[in-house]
């Protein structure tokens, strides 16, 4: 059966539509939320190492700023396109509203393959992107952060470029920076930490002991590698992991600390001798208790959802499960920690980083983690209340919490006439 719901932008629109209808809100709420406030497409010219000029296409989308300045990551990936960035920005609006952060949703990216670029090329490309969008971003306007294939070093070049253009240090422009220039303790681990925290809580409610669970993790980047490490250190058996080139499986569990070291040295997972190679598709269908899709969109679809054996899917990626697959998982009794909660630890600690930058007062790691758990717990409780009140999936419940907050803000701001 072909899955008709693969366009993430259409999916994001549909989710808002359903939420507005379920809550019985003004039609104007959906009219405003169904598309971004602003969509920028920019040409990003930069000089290759051989001296030639190349121009890539970049985007920045600001979806809705009813609750505060827009916020969201920057993705470097060959598949980046305008509909994807729009959807990702809409999902950020939901995430920030659900977590109670004073932000709207934004997102950006450049269609490029970082594996084909040298470090110097990535730096020049990153700086040129900031030159292209510098007028529309800022600490009180729109605040970028890392996402797929971007990292603290890239954030450092970007904040430096912006600060040079503006003639003043503006650390609050961007989050996910290195510690030494205003990054927050706990930010690198935040998304994986939040994902494990939320999933463990759901597992406990379902009578599954997280510390003894068998876990498969798709994606070994900013989110997957940290979630796998935390789960492994808690005693869980991480039996499979993967990156974009394929996966590894060992039914008796993989030593994740050892594998992280292997990846640091070899740059990818392939060739690791203490596990068998498997494909990304096989990884999703393994007999495990918990599956963390932590790579890209549209991984669990109508084509494979029936074969998912996990009892819990904890979404580290944005949009890994299509709506048709969601319905199939629901019928099978598989619980899904939705992306807008599961990976919201990242933007929550980004918010803490921005607060620290604005106040120029820096917190301990304990304080960051304590507050992260407080924000996640509150969002989970709000989501569960809607889940019980309306008898809908956790994902739909998350949208109800967020849409209700967005509607309140837009109403008092006088946008819904
Ligand atoms: N890229 C992350 C996300 O999708 C983090 C965004 C942020 O920290 O602003 O949530």
Can you characterise this structure?
The protein is of the alpha/beta class. Among the domains are: 138 residues, Leucine Dehydrogenase, chain A, domain 1 (Rossmann fold), CATH 3.40.50.10860; 144 residues, 3-Layer(aba) Sandwich (Rossmann fold). Helix content is 46%, strand content 16%. The strands form 2 sheets. A 7-stranded mixed beta sheet has the order 10-9-8-7-11-12-13, sandwiched between helices. Strands 1, 2, 3, 4, 5 and 6 form a 6-stranded mixed beta sheet that branches. Helix 1 runs antiparallel to helix 2 and helix 13 packs across helix 14. Glutamic acid binds next to helix 12.
How are the strands of the biggest sheet laid out side by side? 10-9-8-7-11-12-13
Number of contiguous helices: 14
Rg from alpha-carbon coordinates: 20 Å
Order of helices and strands: HHEEEEHEHEHHEHEEHEHEEHEHHHH
Mean pLDDT: 97
- How many strand units? 13
Major β-sheet profile: 7 strands, mixed
Task: Provide the list of bound ligands, each named once.
Answer: glutamic acid
Helix content: 40-55%
Instruction: Measure the end-to-end span.
Output: 43 Å
What are the low-pLDDT stretches, counting only 5+ consecutive residues below 50?
none
Looking at the overall shape, the CATH architecture of the domain at 190-333 is 3-Layer(aba) Sandwich
The quaternary organization reads as: single chain
Strand content: 15-25%
In CATH, what is the class of the domain at 190-333? Alpha Beta
Shape label: globular
Q: Do you know the CATH topology of the domain at 190-333?
A: Rossmann fold
CATH 4th-level superfamily of the domain at 190-333: NAD(P)-binding Rossmann-like Domain
SSE-based structural type: alpha/beta
């Amino acid at each position: 059966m072909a899955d008709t719901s693969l366009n993430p932008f259409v999916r994001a629109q549909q989710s808002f539509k359903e939420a507005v209808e379920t809550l019985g809100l003004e039609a104007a709420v959906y009219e405003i939320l169904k598309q971004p406030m602003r969509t920028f497409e920019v040409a990003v010219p930069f000089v290759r190492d051989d001296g030639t000029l190349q121009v890539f296409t970049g985007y920045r989308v600001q979806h809705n700023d009813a609750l505060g300045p827009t916020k969201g990551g920057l993705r470097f990936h060959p598949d980046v396109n305008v509909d994807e960035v729009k959807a990702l920005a809409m999902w950020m609006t939901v995430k920030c509203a659900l977590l109670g952060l004073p932000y709207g949703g934004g997102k950006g990216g450049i269609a490029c393959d970082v594996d084909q670029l040298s470090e110097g090329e990535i730096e020049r490309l990153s700086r040129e992107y900031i030159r292209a969008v510098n007028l529309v971003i800022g600490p009180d306007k729109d605040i970028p952060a890392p996402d797929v294939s971007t990292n603290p070093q890239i954030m450092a070049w970007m904040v430096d470029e912006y600060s040079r253009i503006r003639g003043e240090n503006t650390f609050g422009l961007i989050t996910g920076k290195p510690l030494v220039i205003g990054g927050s303790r706990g930010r690198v681990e935040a998304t994986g930490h939040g994902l494990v925290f939320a999933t463990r809580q759901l597992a406990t409610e379902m009578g599954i002991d997280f510390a003894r669970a068998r876990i498969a993790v798709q994606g070994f980047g900013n989110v997957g590698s940290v979630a796998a490490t935390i789960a492994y250190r808690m005693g869980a058996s991480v039996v499979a992991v993967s990156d974009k080139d394929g996966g590894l499986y060992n039914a008796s569990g993989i030593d994740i600390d050892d594998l992280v070291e292997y990846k640091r040295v070899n740059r990818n997972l392939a060739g690791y001798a203490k596990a068998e190679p498997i494909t990304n598709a096989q990884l999703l269908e393994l007999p495990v208790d918990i599956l963390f899709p932590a790579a890209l969109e549209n991984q669990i679809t109508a084509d494979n959802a029936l074969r998912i054996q996990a009892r819990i899917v904890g979404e580290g990626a944005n949009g890994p499960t299509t709506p048709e697959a969601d319905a199939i998982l629901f019928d099978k009794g598989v619980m899904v920690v939705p992306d807008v909660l599961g990976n919201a630890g990242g933007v929550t600690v980004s918010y803490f980083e921005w607060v620290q930058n604005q106040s120029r007062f820096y917190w301990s790691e304990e304080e960051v983690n304590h507050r992260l758990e407080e924000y996640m717990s509150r969002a989970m409780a709000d989501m569960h209340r809607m889940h019980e009140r309306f008898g809908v999936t956790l994902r739909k419940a998350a949208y109800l919490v967020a849409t209700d907050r967005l509607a309140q803000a837009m109403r008092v701001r006088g946008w819904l006439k």
